[in-house]
Design brief:
Elements lengths: L1 E4 L4 E7 L4 E6 L2 E6 L1 E3 L2 E8 L7 E3 L1 E4 L2 E4 L10 E3 L7 E6 L9 H7 L3 H14 L10 E5 L10 H11 L17 H12 L2 H9 L2 E4 L13 H7 L5 H17 L5 H6 L1 H6 L6 H13 L8 E5 L2 E6 L17 H11 L6 E6 L7 H14 L8 H11 L8 H16 L8 E6 L5 E8 L7 E6 L9 H10 L2 H13 L7 E10 L3 E8 L2 E8 L2 H8 L10 E7 L2
Parallel strand pairs: 11-12, 12-13, 15-16, 16-17, 17-19
Antiparallel strand pairs: 1-2, 2-6, 3-4, 3-8, 5-6, 7-10, 8-9, 11-21, 14-15, 18-19, 18-20, 21-22, 22-23
Helix pairs in contact: 1-17, 2-5, 3-4, 4-7, 7-10, 12-13, 12-16
Length: about 550
Amino acid sequence: MLRHVSETTATIWVETDAPGTVTVSAGDLAAHADTFAVHGHHYALCEIGGLRPGQSVEYRVSVNGVPVWPEPGSPHPPSLLRALDPSAPQRLLFGSCRTPTDHGPAAVARYGADVLRAYALRLAEARRAAAPAAPEPTALLLIGDQVYADEIQQPMREYLAARRAHTPAHRVRPPDDEVVFFDEYAELYRLSWSDPDVRWLLSTVPTLMLFDDHDIRDDWNTSGTWRRRIAENRWWRPRITAGLGSYWVYQHAGNLSPEERAADPVWRALRDGGDGGAALDAFAWRAHDEPDSYRWSHSHAFGRSRVLMVDTRCGRDVADDRARSMLGSAGGRWLDESLTGDVDHLVVASTLPFLLPKGVHYLEAWNEAVCAGAWGERLRGPGERLRQRLDLEHWAAFQRSFAAVSEAVLEVADGGRGTPPASVLFLGGDVHFSYLARARARGRRTDTVIAQLVCSPLCNWLPPAMRRMTWLAGRAVTGLGCRVLARLAGVRAPALDWRLSGGLWYDNALATLVLDGRSASVRWEHSPTARAVSEADSGVLARPPLRDLAARVLT
């Protein structure tokens, strides 16, 4: 997998089936790395240096001198390293929520066509033709639910059944249909990323990642009550330990620059030699038990624009319903310090949308107030049950955090934190529908465009009943009613006002944000529902259609 890329370096992430030395060759450049071990699994991160800004070069991978990539007879074009070009337009793909499927009729009817695979097929075709239909992507931002550890598919069910049939009787018996141990997470990632087309795409487009709840478990860290109840399960400690440990290995390590990784204590522990499973487990448990002990958020420069990838899951402080924080103290400080101007565009990517349809926003704000006792102690319990049942856990359900970030963004737009950018853009996923919301400051005018861009899912349609509920939540009358409800619970009016100006769109989709100087635009592409199902009727969906869904000029 091609991960962090700068103007002069590129990181290649590799998993092997045995210890060895991994070599990456790109033109006259080469890098070598010995594998490191975690619970019997083997990985390497190779750093190619000496690239020129904008340089594009084919690369090859070998293990112990034996070529392993590209695979012999592969139908895909060669994988490329493409160093960042700060003077060129930055084209950032983003999306979330992908369930791997076999692309057959039943899978397409339930989950829709895999848009990530559809994009990979189109990119491969364009490269083979040596005349791309569109400019190459700068990076792919996968913002949440790269794997579903609690909603597994049949191949993973079969793996769990076979593996656990040999589990010693003294071991904790985990849920039959959920991933718990590191070996199981490793298999889950393998199944998710081994589709040949997706595997090729991840090898040739730089990728940055963030987790959301399903990477660990549905509703992860939604509240203090949730944390206390889940901890009563004997399998929870191995589950959260394996989930966070495998996330560091499979997703987070590749987000880091060479300098950041060299300074990371987890990386240093894994590189000390021997199997690093125990060290990784200890780190992961501490990251869960003391969220401020590690920062999962990360920042990246794309030309004169800054992208902040913000952890909204592990760093939460939910112990007290009267003092909830989406980011925790350390995460909140980091984001506040990172929200500055002197850039063309400031992009804040969090798995959870910052600006929801107003009906949902005010419902979540009202629910948070009720859970904190705004309507008396007797309603706190029912409020908590409603929170968990309806997943009322987005930024709106953390009003103190929402207000703090809103004020910081308005200071950026007003020029109080450096020269104002042309735009402050929030990227989000999670909700399984896509939309655009445009925002403004209440009571004053700024020249900086503020907008929320949501693209979700990549492959996991909402069931029809949920579509109807979310459509209703997006109506203006619903927003007004929920606003009144929230005000009756003491919720203050937000500093930002916003409205939907595109969506709600429910098809599987992948978005492209283009940042070109002070200009910004966005395009959503989807795989049309009716045609995708029809093409799958006769077997595996060989070539999912990919069509424009919507396009908007932002600045």
